[in-house]
Fold these 3 entries.
Entry 1:
Amino acid sequence: MKVVLQNLTKIFPSRDKKSNTEVVAVNDFTFEIPDGKLVGLLGPSGCGKSTTLYMISGLQKPSSGKIFFGDDDVTELSTENRGIGLVFQNYALYPHMTVLQNILFPLQNLKGADRPTKEEMLERAHYAAKLVQIDELMERKPSELSGGQQQRVAIARALVKMPRVLLLDEPLSNLDARLRLQTREEIKRIQKETGITTVFVTHDQEEAMSISDVIVVMKLGVVQQIGKPQDVYDSPENLFVAKFLGTPPINVFSGRVENDKLFIGDEAVLDITGVENQEVTIGIRPEGFILDENGPFSCKLSNVEVMGRDASVVATSEASLNPILRAIINSDNKVDTTKETVRFSVKPHKVFLFNKDTEERIYYEVK
Ligand code: ADP
Ligand code: MG
């Protein structure tokens, strides 16, 4: 089931009675979520991810715009009639019910022709429990489960209705690091197995990158970029997106383009064409540096952290807009830590230019 968002906007009235500033939580969001795919909605806290999800679910009504499931306009349809499964950060299971009763609950609430027979309900509950691998725990109460297991029950409860669309709002945030990793693999597997169109909300870029077929990066209610995770990482359209994706984060410098040379400070680090002389903001991914004695870019060496396969060279540069810069190199390369200065050349496809004021990407060609 594809889901179409058409100029979706949500404006909240001011919470503060004295000021009249309303909050545009989601601003003119248009996107077609492809059938059977997992879309990651990604952005910092407050950027409108949950509001978007709630509008898809019907829990909140858009101020303007439309939502389609397939060809059906569902904008005015109630949550119960949309055929969605919802999972929140806090699993919100019924504490006095067993796992089985929790999973059965949404089916027992169905009325009329939608209500399955008792046997069908049990069959579906067991199928959903098997999918999320909790079928051995059916008689337990939620308090007898770990956080990860509770979240699986919540997912099973969302799946049991056989939803047309699965909506997950930061479902892993309450889990510890190891469970988070494991559960996100599980969600990916379940999504693939069931083929249910899924929207997954998170503020964690690594989570979104690892799990999503497509990511949507948002900032202050406005979509910044949509694409396959690797494509967005490899070609960010603005500085915000470049900074939001990647660990360690991208290194940012002030620099300038002068007569087909790209300068960081006084050093010309690349020969480029296609950009007029101007001051620019430069982003260089940590893996974009090559250790090179004769390289054009010098910085002040702070220290080297060797971590198995990779080494992280920590340095400072006057042109850097962050306190430190970090280059990730293969740990086979030995850095002379007795020296004060370390020199690099740069990989052009890891170097991005942005307009100094608008922060929009400036595209260049390498000479
Ligand atoms: P996210 O899920 O990305 O953290 P939200 O969608 O929850 O962001 O919120 C987006 C913006 O809308 C925030 O500025 C938030 O304060 C505001 N907001 C969310 N819900 C309401 C509400 N019910 N009333 C007023 N403002 C709200
Ligand atoms: Mg939220």
Entry 2:
Amino acid sequence: MAKTHTRFVCQECGRAAASYMGKCPQCGSFNSMMEEVVHEEPFAKGAGNLRGLSGRSQPHPISEVGGDVEDRVHLPIGEFARVLGGGIVLGSIVLIGGDPGIGKSTLMLQMAMEMANTQRVLYVSGEESERQIKMRALRLLAAHDKKELPKNLLLVTETNLEVILNHVRDSKPDLLIVDSIQTIYLSNMDSSAGSVSQVRECASQLRELAKSSGISVFMIGHVTKDGAIAGPRVLEHIVDTVLYLEGDRFQAYRLLRSVKNRFGATAEVGVFEMREGGLVEVTNPSEAFLAERLINAAGSAIAVTMEGTRPILVEIQGLTSPTQFGNARRTPNGVDFNRLLLISAVLTRRVGLKLAEHDVFVNVVGGIQIDEPAADLAIAAAIASSWKDMPVRAEAVLIGEIGLAGELRMPGQMAARLREAQKLGFKTAIVPKAIRKGEDYPRGIEIIEVRSLDQALDAALKRDGDVTRGKKSA
Ligand code: TYD
Ligand code: MG
């Protein structure tokens, strides 16, 4: 007879314990331990067959292991392929996370419809009915001026993983999409769908399926309110690639970001725009992000941020306004709060801007989130520009990290950033003075090298009729 016992599993991090604990000793969250029943037997005996394992493995010399290059399938959505490292790797398992309503299901359906031209695709949904998915597919189709739904795209609404695996066995797809991992369950486990144990076990079985059959598996994962994928760490270890679809729900742009990728560069970003007809690729994001810029308005500066291997130009807006209620506020949108505190403090102490009695707002246009310190200088310039009510030179970009002493530091990949700025018609770049010139700066863009924030602002802020004040140092 199957031996059963219970254990307590933290729903945040997956830590198991024999008895209840109010606070998880691993991740420190409170009240996250839930009781789950464990059946020993099915996993001890039948598990090998269940997971398609042969139980036999054989070590080989590395030189004789097959597969010199990964087998990739071409993915016609360029921005998506870029994030994956160039197409879908056969037998890989990919997790796509993101806030509710951000467009995960839309993206997966678009991919499924594209891939179904050349491959067999099985789309399993635990959230929407087949009719609902078809309605969405028809809308996507109409927007792309196509007439027919692909025959090779199979839909099923199902949440039981054993049944799903049977469907896979019967229909033999090349690509399996599971929307979402939190809705599917294994009937031989007693915990409810979406609990850490279910999510972990279901994901492991899908991985075994991918590895043993060569089917590529994409699964959607929900994000908890703190921004982590529910059952987070456990899932990230199981899959090959973790992608996040992010963006401001009230803005059109969506960023698909890879945070882990066994088959390509991490931190790679694909940019999409959510339209009537689904997600549309934005192949030149810098241009899109700068499209609505007001030239010569105070409180706006252009930063060049590296998103993966690609430089992207973004407009940063700053606004300072006298504090109404005593406590000056710092309100960032798209940049880190602590970074804004630091930049405001450096502007106050090293440049002499009296920000103590001013609220400071910073906004990154387009709804993207910038984590890179290379944007510091542009943030500082936007704030200073608003405070002094002097516009930043319209044809200049600002690149550099700010130190506590008001000194500027050189970020990486300067040449790539400058090339992108030049490509978009910017004439001047204000950058930290390099001690050693490691990279070849492009010609045709004037480089103003500065040592401190003070000098940078001097060069960037324009007084009427005085555009050439920036001292060009060698
Ligand atoms: P969805 O893919 O259902 O989000 P998720 O699976 O991440 O929860 O996307 C839902 C949003 O996308 C919804 O608010 C409507 C919008 N949308 C469009 O704007 N255009 C479209 O063509 C589609 C299909 C969705
Ligand atoms: Mg969805």
Entry 3:
Amino acid sequence: MQFFDYENNELYAEQISLTEIAQQFGTPCYVYSRAAIEANWRAFDNALADKPHRICYAVKANSNLAILNILARLGSGFDTVSIGEIARVIAAGGDPKKIIFSGVGKTSAEILRAIEIGIHSFNVESGVEITRLNTLAASQHKIINISLRINPDIDANTHPYISTGMKENKFGIDIADVLPLCAKIKTFSNLNLIGIACHIGSQLTTITPFLSAIDRVLDLVAQLKQQGFTLQQLDLGGGLGIRYHNEEPPTINEYVMGLREHLADCPLEIILEPGRAITANAGILLTRIEYLKHTQHKNFAIVDAAMNDLMRPALYNAWQQILPVELNNKHPEKIYDIVGPVCETADFLGRDRKLAVESGDLLAITCAGAYGFAMSSNYNSRPRAAEVMVDKNKVTLIRRRETIDELYAGEIMVTE
Ligand code: LLP
């Protein structure tokens, strides 16, 4: 935890103490380190520096405009899955020509808007989508770039909810269907097939499944070449895992070097779509203990963040480290379940954690920069948390805490 570290027994984000941030912005609050985001993105980019490539950050991991803007300024491309994400990228100063639109359920309205904006390409997930894309592109008198997202039928050995590359998953095109589909694409005059894409899952902690996927992709590229298709790019998706607990994933550099070795002399442009590996360890969720509740069976630390703020523990039984912001030996060490105020037993942020804390103390839930705020909700009518960005000794509010009024601003009562 280089970017979040203790100094004089107090946890800092870069050069700013989290206690100060809590005083200034309140809790719960997401705190991001700009240096961490930039270092992670650059690690991907540098590892491919001498090859045609584009790092397309997966916006779904964390779509705050400040984060997208920082990445856009580094030259990042963006992998998006909705017109909302595309709009965010544009609003943040991202280049439409570096946007990829992925996803199994693109609506006609979304496709038309993306064509109008002039995005780089669509990652297509089915035959029916191909037909729809051609019709819509023709209606706009445009020729659009597409890549076929294949489903390589590979077990990514990750949580079943975030595994995407197996036959029974809804994602991608079965490899056996690719050649017939390509024949169909040839007859469509508004589509330009530029590549093959695949994404087999998220939080992968070994490189082997990625390499198996590359084998299948390269095999397909060779077959397509025989059929007269000259491709420009290979999109190998995202999915590199991080260390939440005791996982030992490859570093970004090891991962990219491993892919490169396997790609050998493949001359195509390499696209990567990392999300978690760029923002997860660049963020923490700062929360305050409201109550310590001791029962005969358990000790609970009831905090002001909840499953609506950070859903990963409830949804995937995910383990994220929980650190006291101040280290001291004033309080007895006990085993706690760290829970929120939401009325669900699934509302836990961590279970069976050893902590020496008192009510009023601050806790930091680490590696919360990806799939944290982005998956948050208003459940139990809880305003969504504030988000701040730390840059060395400077802290900036990048999303103000929602107000109570905003919770129901769009709601309308029936008058009769
Ligand atoms: N590309 C595509 C097509 C994707 O579906 C995803 C993630 C990514 C790239 C980025 O994957 P990453 O590099 O972040 O692993 N909410 C879950 C993760 C869901 C991932 C969905 N797709 C979690 O909190 O673990």
